[in-house]
Amino acid sequence: MLVLGIETSCDETSAAVVDENRIRSNIIATQQVHIKYGGVVPEFASRAHVKQLQHIVELALREADCALNNINGIAVTYGPGLAGSLLVGLCFAKGLALRLKIPFIGINHLEGHILATAANEPKQEYPYICLVASGGHTLLVYVAKPLVYEVIGSTIDDAAGEAFDKVAKILGLGYPGGPAVEKAARLGNELAVHFPRALLEPDNLNFSFSGLKTSVLYYVQSLSKDQLITQVNDISASFQKSVSDVLAAKAILAATKYDCKRLILAGGVARNNHLRETFEKTCKNQAIAFAVPSPELCTDNAGMIARAGLMRLAKGEHSDYTLDVFPNLALKT
Fold this sequence. Notes:
About 45% of the residues lie in helices and about 20% in strands. The chain is α/β, with parallel strands linked by helices. It has two domains: about 5-115 and about 295-315, ATPase, nucleotide binding domain (Nucleotidyltransferase, domain 5), CATH 3.30.420.40; about 125-295, Nucleotidyltransferase, domain 5 (2-Layer Sandwich). A five-stranded mixed beta sheet has the order 3-2-1-4-5, with helices on both faces. Strand 9, helix 8 and strand 10 (about 290) form a beta-alpha-beta unit.
């Protein structure tokens, strides 16, 4: 079975082809137009998807060494994300499925992240805890068995990735914030400034990063321009450590509470090397198996969407042509 995946939830245009065993191709085009604006401009994002989606699909098919007529099904993100961007991908998928007379299925973007480690290794061990940390979401999910989810914790304000972007802006490091903060942090002392760790009470599986962001802001405002220049790296490292400590502590708490011996870290923030190392060390100390997707599969990509689609299509599930986009789509439990 060959499934074509399409992902256009934000500012990455991506197409992929997967079979039962592996990803055959996963093409990702990141839109550079947003950098000078310090964030994603929704209208620019949807226009870019329109211009390049067909070409990206053609590249994915070529790299997978398969013809369009060999595709057995199509998986496409229908939420959450930017409405205009989602519409481009969904309409393209519907039209292609209609032309080829094959089934298509709408996939929740969050489910894609949860299944990112399964994209190239479909045989997964259950149950497990998955922490999805991205620019728009931070949530803990208990995965009892394939395609069965229970959200057991989430952020009550800012997502982890959003906090990285905002702190990068405060420090004048540019956009995207995550890589910029991580780069500066490599040259800093993570113990230089003690920033708060919120909601670490026993049994509390929710997150809060708004107070941490505000604490960084107040600290920066207390410095002169010369002091800030000399402390940017230390502030970045200390902030990064605070986020990593909270995410790891919550994930371990969830694994302990739900008696899971396997923990998965996913989402765009999972590309952060400090966070990955923190999880590896913490899980090793707690005798918990740890897995994280390759950096490419942590970002928004069609490989994970195609894998989720293949799993659902194989069960006989499919969407009809009345399916609409849902920008605020929650993870179905």
